[in-house]
Amino acid sequence: MRRLLTCTLMAAIGLALPTAHGQSAVQSQAHVPKPDMSTLNYDLKARPIAPRTWVIEGAVDDFSRKNGCNIINTAFIATGAGVVVINTGPSRLYGEQQRRLIGQTTTEPVVQVLNLNLHPDYFFGNQAWSDQPTEALAGSIAGMQAEGGAYADNLYRLCGDWMKGTTSTPATRPLTPGVRTLGQHRLELVRLDGHTADDLVLLDHSTGVVFAGGLVFADRVPTTPHADFARWLASLDRLDKLMASGTFRLVVPSHGPVHEGRVGIAQTRDWVTWLTSHMGAQAEAGRDLSELLAQPVPARFGAWAAQPVEWHRTLTQWYPRYEQRALGGR
After folding, report:
1. CA-wise closest residue to 278 among 266, 265, 267, 287
2. How far apart are the C-alpha atoms of 188 and 205, rounded to whole Å?
3. pTM for the whole thing?
4. Are 84 and 187 in contact, with CB atoms under 8 Å apart?
5. Which residues form the domain of 174?
6. pLDDT tens across 240-270, in order?
């Protein structure tokens, strides 16, 4: 037992501590060319994915200076009675450029700005929307308030001048889930959980688009700093049933490509199921963290973005708990 716990502790100390989304500042900046800070431009583009609906796609990658920490998909819907904005990006600069792009794409005024969870790239662009009420689930707002300062410190280290002038700006208004008709769109706000304690999902019944937030990842290793794996799987089951009903056809994950059908749901479920089973089995076998860090993941996950870094972060955070559980049962 002593060898197991000691090796785990030494291996964990030897790794850089995880930051927002688990990214290590040392890992992220090594050997990455710095952008030209005099002309910082996210070069955001609005891609139509359904009637009056656009997505602004981020890199399917990890936080870095090279991508300006822009690894998130944000979106907006021109409902006919005003624009709904979904997520505001990782920085004040992103929020400003997002706002300009929306104004160039539609003449409708913005009437609602949503943050789907508490992670920084979902709400750090809120500064650019200071004249609008920004909305999130109450639990997400509490998390933003509690962790926003640490998020800012980490993102400044990771992305430097891309973050200039950015301060953590949590959503200002808690929202209540439910159905609302706005213009030509019937929108449903659903509270799920598992990726975080409060995961907001937006269902557009009029276009069949699901804005799944961090519950669904596609072609990318899921991040897990606030995860409850059992609840996450339950939420994926609920999303899967929605997609199977035929009412919805298109999924917009916050990380990874927009896709039709249940591909991202299946990928995320496969990862979470394998991850928890693997950590449990390895802990029961008495293997320590350093041994797991040296292991490759199954081939079906190997080509996903943020691999193996995200896998290593997850192990560093979660595996000691599985070890303790295994030791307690002996």
Report:
1. 287
2. 7
3. 0.88
4. yes
5. 2-328
6. 999 999 999 999 999 999 999 999 999 999 9
